[in-house]
What we know:
The structure holds 2 protein chains of 2 kinds. By secondary structure, chain A is mainly α. Chain A has one domain. Chain A has helices spanning 17-22, 24-39, 47-67, 77-99, 101-104, 106-109, 118-121, 123-145, 156-180, 183-198, 213-216, 220-233, 240-265, 268-271; one strand at 4-6. The longest helix of chain A is centred in the last third of the chain and has 26 residues, at 240-265. The model of chain A has no long low-confidence stretch (mean pLDDT 87). By secondary structure, chain B is α/β, with parallel strands linked by helices. Chain B has helices at residues 27-36, 73-80, 113-123, 128-142, 157-169, 187-202, 214-220, 238-256, and strands at residues 6-18, 44-57, 62-66, 88-93, 97-100, 175-179, 206-211, 223-228, 231-236, 270-275, 279-280, 286-292, 303-309, 315-320, 334-340, 344-345, 348-357, 361-373, 393-394. Chain B has a 6-stranded mixed β-sheet, sandwiched between helices. Chain B is globular, with a radius of gyration of 26 Å. In chain B, 33% of the residues are buried. At the A-B interface, strand 1, helix 2 and helix 10 of A face helix 1, strand 4 and helix 3 of B.
Amino acid sequence: MNRIIIRPPGRFNMPPIREFWDAREVLYRFGVRDLVLRYRQTAVGVAWVVLQPLVSAGIFSIVFGQVAKLPSGGVPYFLFSFVGMLAWSVFNSIVSRAANSLVANQALVSKVFFPRLMVPLSSVISVLIDFAVGFILLIVLLLIYGLNPGWWILLTPLWLICVLLISAGVAIAASAITVRYRDVTYLLPWILQILLYATPIAYALSAVPPDLRWLFELNPLTWLMETVRWTTLGQPAPAVWQLVALPLSCILVFIGGVLLFQRFERSFADFI
Amino acid sequence: MRDTAISVEHLTKTYRITDSSKHTNRVTEAILQRARHPFRRTQFTTLAAIDDLSFDVNWGEAVGIIGRNGAGKSTLLKLLTRVTAPTKGTIDLGGRVGSLLEVGTGFHPELTGRENIYLNGSLLGMTRKEIKRRFDEIVDFSGVEKFLDTQVKRYSSGMYVRLAFSVAAHLETEILAIDEVLAVGDAEFQAKSIAKMRDAAHDGRTVLYVSHQPQTVTTLCSSALFLENGKLSFSGSVDGALSKYRESFARFQEDQRDPANRPGTGALRFTFGAVTEQIQDPADDTVVEFEVGPNPDVIGKYYVSCHINDADGNVIVQCDSRLTGAWFSPAAHQRGALVIRSVWFKPGRYSIDLFVCQAGIIDTWEAADSFEVLPSTPYPEFTSDDAMSHGVILADFRYEVNP
């Protein structure tokens, strides 16, 4: 039998992969719990998953498409903003749900041992289910509008992995910092709100004045949005450097988040 | 390679206590402070909750961890279950540690009993296969099968606790850590739980049990550790640890006789406090005499209070003199006596705590004295022991029979 040796934590702790594998059941149970809790005692239940992206896409297509009359690259504005919201809501939901997760589960964190990373990571599961529903809705919309994105749509899993990595990285870091500084709880919704408008989600990058465009192009989420519209709406592909930088930056953010989390983890029970 | 269940070497856990006026948990303040004093390190004092502990535990042993409040028992258990990390030293574990810390941690009120069994089981380190295999046993043991698909928020508190305990009791980890949870449910369920824990040790697993209650340690454990101020002061037989524990109580009692060692503002101090009859029968009146020294600088009158605690440290009665309108003047040396009537203490050992209070507490004299209530019955009939075994105190009662 393997002996477990516990030593004082060092400065940087690599995440113990084996422990995560042993605790996969926890991740699954947390995911199920989130899903069950979300729709138990709601009147329309799962319909919320369909309703939310439709309504927000509708609002954006009225405001940006009808009122501001922004260009959408020849695609119906509703479809244009729906795709943007589909990818954005993955990021937004994971980050906002996970940030408070450790504090919300503080009874567990201060009493029972299990890989703490499971707590913020579990929010990914329920978001993935939402995404699946949203994606089916997208296919239906593409058929209704008679728009064929071409074979590029098969690349969807690749950008999905990217958005999962970057949002999980941010979410993990945010949840760890929240344990010490509750400010994050107030700061984060505000930052997310700003990001929603600072990223070309409901408008095209081409609508941004050329002298400001470099600022938008610094944002990894811009690269993501361009990639998403390329694969699902048949819009022109983003620059090659963006296609390379996107996965790289997502992996970096994820690793950074995990390392930060590990650094904070051993003292959670003392601080929370 | 070692073949012990647990080997602990030079284990130390220190907590830093930041000066409260300078402590911050806001980012903005933390940054501002760092900017204002870039080179100053935060001021803090360190407190060693666990101080250089070394011990071995063999397989199949049931080890009781005893000590006064704040001796570090729970911290030790948290370290062994990896909830918190040690500051120094190593812990070498021969297998998985399952913890049965507080019953119901990880239960979610909105989920059904069945869902909670799976969630809680996985949190405690069981695999899905293990939970499935033992599912029926768990349900059977808890006795809530009828309500398995009801949300636990609709459970009675008894059902809730029984289900939570059952999940934890069926853990298949090699080492089991328990923090005083055996005292849940009714007497029958408690007996069942203690039997279950004993079986665990018989199966060659190792049980760690933290308690304030010497009785459960005696019935459950084969050896014991006695902690004092974070240090291991005894390791070995249960009887040895318990006598050490009693000795330390006697030492504490001796220590508290000196007012300088007692908490409270200290403006007024008891100079004397004692129970008149050290050995009494249940139906006897209990009389506590006390004297309080004068202090003309204290403004207004004060009252005194007395707690009577049982051997487990539970407060049985609280007698504040303000309830009977007895207030004392600090101008003169005061002598008084508290007479407690109409309470029949159960046979056993009791200790008394004395307090001098105004708006706040001026003097706290814990363990000022103790007395023994003899195992004699105040009732007219003799029956078997279980006629008096339930309840905290005995009552002066009679039955009226109306045909």
